[in-house]
Structure formats: structure tokens, C-alpha cells
Write a structure and sequence with these properties.
Elements: H1 2-21, H2 26-67, E1 70-71, E2 79-80, H3 84-90, H4 93-126, H5 129-140, H6 147-157, H7 164-170, H8 186-211, H9 215-223, H10 228-239, H11 241-256, H12 260-265, H13 277-287, H14 292-315
Antiparallel strand pairs: 1-2
Helix pairs in contact: 3-14, 4-8, 4-11, 5-8, 8-11, 11-14, 13-14
Length: 324
């Protein structure tokens, strides 16, 4: 009797344990239903963005690629030409030189812009609240200035006869220069207003990245006896890697595609030394009867910019945000 009484609880306990350990069949179905509802809600929220991207980004690009294989105008039916437009663009030395000149222009603009913006953001971060507000407003003013207005201002500054720049360098005994008419100085002269125009937004983004760095990192550096340069190179710059990557990509693409400055200030001269890719495409679009050539050139420029941006992303990998 004793053994029988002891066996029953053991058997019942084992069965209960098995029932407790056995997974419920209703639980996966419930989870599947919740996941399906969550996915539907996510798709519903993403739908407006996908529709807008399709209408204003994907479809125009697809249609432009389609038109690039035709001799197309506003007044005649499209004439299919296959790859001829692309072959003509790639065989045009002026287009190749304009792309190379655009890359050189970006090298002139972007690094200088990043360095000045970083130094200015570091200055703003160290001053008091009212002074910081005044500095931020002052540095942001060029951002709201039209590129055409900035071009006119700098044309007056570079003027050979009454320009401020020639008057300034004349104080040091330097002869007057035709800054926009000299093949050696024309492109650097365009780089200066390009740096000035983008400096404001670049500085504010830099400042936002610096403010987002947790103060504990600087406190730990202070305890180790680090000076300003050490904290800058070993704390600030590494933790702002994503900011630098964003500004490098956006600044690079904006500089290569600069259009207003060369159009208003030099119209591509002298001797096409300031003929950047977008101005080259615009001139062909304005002068050619068929626009398939211009569309093919624009697509090739997009491929070049996309490839270089992909290389930059590959070399400078972005990192996850630092938790505060």
C-alpha cells in the first residue's frame, strides 16, 4: 500500500510536469496574429512615403533612363538611337573634363568647409548663451542668401577696377588681378563663395553633434589630465564620425553639382576652366534640338556621384549612436 500511494503522486506529478512543459498550441497562433497585425500597420504607415518616392523619385529616374535612349524633343516624336547618346557623351572630352573639374572643385570646397565649421562650432560651444546665440545667427545668415545674390556680391568683390579684394591686396604691394578672368584663379575664386554659402548649415550640424556627446567622456578625459587638443582628437572627432560622414557626402555632391555660381559669375569661362558638369548639361539642353544627349549626360553624372558616395560610405563606415 505504501509503495502504491507513493507511486501515484510521482506519476501524477510527472504527467503534470509534462503538461506544464508542453508548449501551448494556441500561443504561436496568437503571436502570429499579432505579428501580422503589426506588419499591416507598419506597411500602412510606410505606404504614403513609398507612394511619394515612387511618384517623385523612382518614376522620374526610370522615365529619364528611357528617354536617354531616344533623340527626343518637345516638338517631334522620339527617335530610338540605342546607346548612341551615351557613347557621344563619353566621347566628348569637354564632359569628361567638366566632371574632373567638378571633383577638383569639391576637393577645394568640402575639406575647408568642414575644418572651418568644426572650429566655429567648437568656439560656439565654449562661450556663454547670449554670445553663442549671436554667433549662431551670424553664421547662419549666408545660408538664407540666394546663390545668385551671392554670385553678384562676389563678382563685385573680385572686380578688377573697384573690387574690395584688389584694394586689399594692393595695400601689400600686390598688383591687381582679374580673379575671374585668369585661368589659374577662376576656379578657386568660385570656391570661396561656395564655402561661404554652405558654412552656416554645416556649422550648426557640427554644433548639434558636439552637444549630443555625453559630458561623462570629457569628465573622464579631464581626470586623466587631457588638454583641449587631446580631448578634440581622441573624444570629439571619433564620436562625431557619423556627422562628418553625412556632411562629407552631402557637401561633396552639392559641390560637384554647383550650378548658380559658375553660371552667374563666369558662364563657364575663361576657356571653360569653370565649366562644371551641371552647367555643361544646361548649355547642351539650351542649345541642342534633341535633349536625349543632355539626359544621358545627367544620368552618367548621377552614376559617377553614386559610385563615389558608395566608396566613401565603404571607407568611412557609420557607427551606432553613443548612449547618453
Amino acid at each position: 500500500m505504501t509503495q502504491t500511494v507513493q507511486a501515484e503522486p510521482t506519476t501524477l506529478g510527472t504527467a503534470a510536469a509534462r503538461r506544464r512543459g508542453r508548449p501551448s498550441r494556441k500561443q504561436p497562433r496568437a503571436r502570429t496574429g499579432m505579428n501580422a497585425r503589426s506588419n499591416k500597420m507598419a506597411y500602412l504607415m510606410l505606404a504614403p512615403v513609398v507612394i511619394l518616392l515612387t511618384i517623385f523619385v523612382v518614376w522620374p529616374v526610370v522615365y529619364a533612363v528611357y528617354l536617354s535612349f531616344y533623340n527626343w524633343s518637345f516638338y517631334t516624336d522620339p527617335i530610338p538611337v540605342g546607346w548612341r547618346n551615351y557613347m557621344n557623351v563619353l566621347g566628348d572630352r569637354t564632359f569628361i573634363e567638366s566632371v574632373g573639374r567638378g571633383l577638383l572643385f569639391a576637393v577645394m570646397v568640402v575639406p575647408v568647409q568642414l575644418v572651418i565649421a568644426f572650429l566655429f562650432a567648437s568656439l560656439v560651444r565654449t562661450v556663454s548663451g547670449r554670445v553663442a546665440t549671436l554667433l549662431k545667427v551670424s553664421i547662419y545668415i549666408p545660408t538664407i542668401v540666394s546663390g545668385v545674390i551671392a554670385s553678384i556680391i562676389f563678382v563685385l568683390i573680385y572686380n578688377y577696377q573697384g573690387g574690395i579684394l584688389n584694394a586689399f591686396v594692393g595695400l601689400f604691394g600686390v598688383e591687381k588681378q582679374a580673379w575671374l578672368g585668369n585661368v589659374a584663379t577662376a576656379l578657386p575664386a568660385l570656391a570661396v563663395p561656395a564655402i561661404w554659402l554652405g558654412l552656416g548649415i554645416c556649422s550648426l550640424i557640427m554644433l548639434a553633434g558636439m552637444v549630443d556627446i555625453p559630458a561623462t567622456y570629457y569628465e573622464a578625459a579631464d581626470l586623466d589630465g587631457a588638454n583641449w587638443f587631446q580631448k578634440t582628437f581622441f573624444v570629439t572627432i571619433p564620436l562625431m564620425k557619423n556627422i562628418f560622414l553625412f556632411l562629407l557626402i552631402t557637401g561633396f555632391t552639392a559641390a560637384v553639382q554647383q550650378f548658380e555660381l559658375p553660371l552667374v559669375m563666369t558662364d563657364g569661362g575663361p576657356l571653360e576652366r569653370t565649366l562644371l558638369p551641371n552647367l555643361y548639361i544646361f548649355q547642351h539642353f539650351r542649345n541642342d534640338t534633341y535633349v536625349g544627349y543632355s539626359i544621358a549626360a545627367a544620368i552618367l553624372l548621377m552614376v559617377v556621384l553614386g559610385s563615389i558616395s558608395a566608396v566613401i560610405f565603404r571607407v568611412l563606415n557609420s557607427e551606432k549612436a553613443v548612449d547618453g
